[in-house]
Write a structure and sequence with these properties.
The chain is an alpha/beta fold. 34% of the residues lie in helices and 21% in strands. The protein has helices spanning 3-8, 20-32, 35-46, 94-107, and strands at residues 10-13, 62-67, 78-80, 85-89, 118-122, 129-133.
Length: 134
């Protein structure tokens, strides 16, 4: 996956490119995720595992939305495949963000409407995720 192409086609809602969480995100995409992990992430946010080859072939821009929650490190990101976007918490550390992104990409691959209204958290005691209705 061409991470720089994806970045050039990205808009932000509630974040700017200079925010630590956005810098964490692009570092993870570039250097911590391999091609297989990036493909799973794309499926999580878009329902597809590959990007278009050129910017002109994108149907819409990718969007990263700020998700404000108390204790943000406990929450998983939420993918919106129909809109090629996802909600990202203000994780306190890159390692926590990477762990949450990997978990979501590996375990939350159904279309996002399947669990509309549910917010998933990670239980600190045993690592299992729980659903909290909003």
């Amino acid at each position: 996956m061409d991470v720089e192409l994806l970045k050039s086609m990205t808009t932000y809602s509630g974040y700017t490119e200079k925010d630590p969480q956005i810098r964490f995100f692009w570092e993870i995409m570039r250097n911590r995720f391999d091609d297989a992990a990036r493909a799973k992430f794309l499926r999580f946010v878009w329902g597809r595992s590959r990007l278009p080859v050129r910017a002109a072939d994108f149907e819409r821009q990718f969007r990263i939305n700020k998700m404000s929650r108390p204790q943000p490190d406990r929450y998983l990101p939420i993918g919106h495949t129909c809109f090629f976007s996802f909600d990202l918490c203000e994780y306190s550390e890159m390692s926590i963000m990477e762990e949450r992104l990997r978990y979501a990409a590996n375990h939350c691959s159904s279309i996002d409407a399947d669990f509309s209204g549910a917010v998933f958290t990670v239980d600190d005691d045993d690592g299992d995720s729980d659903s909290d209705e909003d």
